[in-house]
Automatic annotation (TrEMBL), chains A, B:
InterPro entries: Aldolase_TIM (IPR013785), NMO (IPR004136). It comes from Alkalicoccobacillus murimartini. SUPFAM superfamilies: Inosine monophosphate dehydrogenase (IMPDH) (SSF51412). Its cofactor is FMN. Pfam families: NMO. Keywords: Detoxification, Flavoprotein, FMN, Monooxygenase, Oxidoreductase. It catalyses: 3 propionate 3-nitronate + 3 O2 + H2O = 3 3-oxopropanoate + 2 nitrate + nitrite + H2O2 + 3 H(+). This is Probable nitronate monooxygenase. GO terms for molecular function: nitronate monooxygenase activity. The keyword Secreted does not apply. The keyword Oxidoreductase applies. Belongs to the nitronate monooxygenase family. NMO class I subfamily. Nitronate monooxygenase that uses molecular oxygen to catalyze the oxidative denitrification of alkyl nitronates. Acts on propionate 3-nitronate (P3N), the presumed physiological substrate. Probably functions in the detoxification of P3N, a metabolic poison produced by plants and fungi as a defense mechanism. It comes from the Bacteria.
Length: 358, 358
């Protein structure tokens, strides 16, 4: 078992990592509450600039003396395609009207700017001596890996297939998060098509652990002691939970998002790329259904994300769940509104019960 | 835990059920070998008539004194749509040519004939006093449930969502198989769209067991002791394994199918309805890729199944893996060519190791 070394390396009391949830869900309050309760809290820097990240790190440091981590998105090259842009604008226009949004010209993200921002985020992580850095959507460069290793920062990659897990180990990262098809939010797939990267954890973990040596962290649909113990049987040393923390009091998710999750059933989440240009799992709603047919004609990530931002914001402000991205994993029926402390206690108690009861 | 009662009720030494694999994969040799090794062997009657089923039951009874079961497909009403039929024939014609098949007029299945056949299969199960009957693609009628209950035949339904599991319990069935999105072969979904019924086991089991009391059998991607113990942690009393038995010596799968599975990786399976008219998971190949765009324009199950039969047979006979249905779950990297006895021993040994090692 790789459990002991992972506990030490991540300074954990419990084998639980809070999934970084970008767009304001992972608040400094949530990150610190998780870290203060023996788990690893995470800051989601995916959509932040270096200034905003620095601010969040300082806030978290004020609230906890324990370890926490930062997640970054590895930028991928992209170009703006006029045709896709036109399609998207045409489809979004009637939604702007119905939500009474005066959509001004959106300033579109630029690939080279994303890369520069990513390097600035890493600079902040090094400068602030953040002990753990996780990566989504790809691998950091060997230069970057060398810099982080020099600072003894724990590097964790995110894989959705066995091949991706092998590449993460080969690149020299310390651990790997295996994201199952059950997971809420964005798919981390980077070496395959999004369809090929949809492997359930029951299949993904036991296949991966036969071929890699670094510790595995299981992510996707895990929200209770049962999921925690099952993940450990499959070969994971720890779990990463997103949706379970999303409905916590300390999370920055809107009340309407939290309510949508706690009221949803297992069959009500779906995969869509219409919000951001990249496949992500959330609760089905009008926006997803309207856009479904056109999904493959829309701009890539993060351009589509920029284009839908005003819609998502207005929908949330108007308490209208039909045009928001209601990210959720496949276990919404296990969600509760509670504090992070209550959630962690409950999961650990249940894990022990399961263990003793089998 | 519902483990003890399930062991008794199914006369099991080990909590393993062999998945019924229609189309000649579940041979009497496989069924009997599984039952002779303390697990539950299954006859797949999905595509059989009553005469063929009777023959298989008699063969299995010659080879084992232990309990075994029969799986039936619950027939659903369907009609032949001329347009879909025309589309399918047009698309399949060039494949017939390339495989040098002289396709004569296929006699198409009829809904009312399927229903009559289903009732004849049940008659054989009762008459032969088969102790266990599992159902796929729907619920048996209350009349039928009453008849089987009178004979004390254990009835097991198949669910892909929490709602389906609840309906199976409500109808009075004794147990439920929860089929995760990881599973190979046909999706059992009957109350939802096929997309809605794709829940990973890590999410499906813990949500379902909170709302049902009957024992749960986990199915999908489970091929080793890790998967068995993980399923038990999640709340399942036993597991059903398909792909793991498909590559066994006693299975009737062609060598080319067995080889394709043992050589595949986790990301190489996909869902397709092009072979049968109903979504099923198998290893990606030329046929699936060629038909993908047209999937929604093809006839429903089992009409499309009848239309592709000659292609699947010819492809197999020609050792050409590109036009066969290479059903497989998402864990092909765990598959081995071995006897059923070796597989069962290995799984149980590993389960104990996992248990002691955590």
């Amino acid at each position: 078992m790789k459990q002991a070394s992972l506990y030490d390396r991540l300074h954990l009391t419990h084998p639980i990592i809070q999934a970084p949830m970008a767009g304001g869900i992972s608040t400094p309050e949530l990150t610190a509450a998780v870290s203060n309760n023996g788990c690893l809290g995470m800051i989601a820097a995916g959509y932040l600039d270096s200034k905003a990240l620095l601010k969040q790190i300082k806030e978290v440091k004020k609230k906890t003396k324990n370890w926490f981590g930062v997640n970054v998105f590895v930028p991928n090259d992209y170009e703006i395609e006029d045709c896709a842009l036109h399609t998207s604008k045409t489809l979004l226009e009637p939604i702007h009207e119905s939500l009474q949004i005066n959509q001004l010209d959106v300033s579109l993200p630029e690939s080279k700017h994303d890369v520069a921002n990513y390097h600035q985020l890493i600079d902040v992580i090094i400068q602030e001596n953040v002990p753990v850095c996780t990566f989504t959507f790809g691998l950091p460069s060997s230069d970057l890996i060398r810099r982080l290793k020099e600072q003894d920062i724990v590097m964790i990659g995110t894989a959705t297939t066995v091949k991706e897990a092998i590449e993460i180990e080969r690149a020299g990262l310390d651990m790997v998060i295996l994201q199952g098809s059950e997971a809420g939010g964005h798919r981390a797939t980077f070496l395959h098509s999004e369809e090929e990267g949809l492997i359930g954890l029951m299949a993904l973990i036991p296949q991966a652990i036969r071929l890699i040596k670094i510790p595995v962290i299981a992510a996707g649909g895990i929200m209770d002691g049962r999921g925690l113990m099952a993940s450990r049987c499959l070969g994971a040393a720890a779990v990463q939970m997103g949706t379970a923390f999303l409905t916590c009091i300390e999370s920055g998710a809107s009340d309407i998002h939290k309510q949508a999750v706690t009221k949803a059933t297992d069959s009500q989440t779906t995969l869509t790329s219409s919000f951001s240009g990249k496949k992500a799992r959330g609760i089905n709603n009008t926006f997803i259904r309207m856009m479904q047919k056109h999904e493959n004609d829309l701009p890539v990530f993060p351009i589509q994300n920029a284009l839908t931002k005003s819609i998502r914001t207005a929908s949330s402000n108007q308490n209208n769940r039909e045009f928001m991205s209601l990210w959720s994993g496949q276990s919404p029926m296990l969600a509760n509104i509670q504090t992070a402390e209550e959630l962690i206690e409950r999961v650990m108690e249940e894990a022990e019960e399961i263990w003793n009861g089998i």
